[in-house]
Amino acid sequence: MRSAGSIPRWWGDDVNDALSLRSAYASIAMGGIGSDIAVESADAVLVHDELRLLRALLSLSLSR
C-alpha cells in the first residue's frame, strides 16, 4: 500500500489485528475489549471502546 502512494491506517481489538496495527502508519486499538498485544502494538488506544469517539479524535488530530 505504501508503494502505491496511500497511507495505511488501521483499528482493531484482537490478536489477529496486532501485525496490521504495528505495520500501519497510524493505528488505534480498542482498549477495553482489546487484547494486550493489540493495545501494545497500536499508536493510540480508545479506552472506552466507543467508535463514535473516533470521529472526534480524527477531527482533533487534523485541526491546527
Please explain how this structure is put together:
The chain has 64 residues and is of the alpha/beta class. The chain has one domain (2-62): HAD superfamily/HAD-like (Rossmann fold, 3-Layer(aba) Sandwich). The chain is 36% helix and 19% strand. It has helices at 18-23, 36-41, 52-62; strands at 9-12, 26-30, 44-46. The chain has a 3-stranded parallel sheet with strand order 1-2-3. Strand 1, helix 1 and strand 2 form a beta-alpha-beta unit. The chain is flat, with a radius of gyration of 12 Å. The chain starts with 8 loop residues before the first strand and ends with a helix.
Blueprint (SSEs and pairs):
Layout (H helix, E strand, L loop, with lengths): L8 E4 L5 H6 L2 E5 L5 H6 L2 E3 L5 H11 L2
Parallel strand pairs: 1-2, 2-3
Question: What labels describe this entry?
Answer:
64 residues, alpha/beta, Rossmann fold, 3-stranded parallel beta sheet
What is the structure about, briefly put?
This protein is of the alpha/beta class. It has helices at 18-23, 36-41, 52-62; strands at 9-12, 26-30, 44-46. The protein has a single domain (2-62), classed as 3-Layer(aba) Sandwich (Rossmann fold), CATH 3.40.50.1000.
Which class of secondary structure composition applies to the elements? alpha/beta
Helical content, roughly?
25-40%
Summed up, the domain count is 1
CATH superfamily: HAD superfamily/HAD-like
CATH topology: Rossmann fold
For the biggest β-sheet, the strand order reads 1-2-3
Counting DSSP E segments of at least 2 residues, the number of strands comes to 3
Strand residue content:
15-25%
Q: What would the principal axes of the Cα set say about the shape?
A: flat
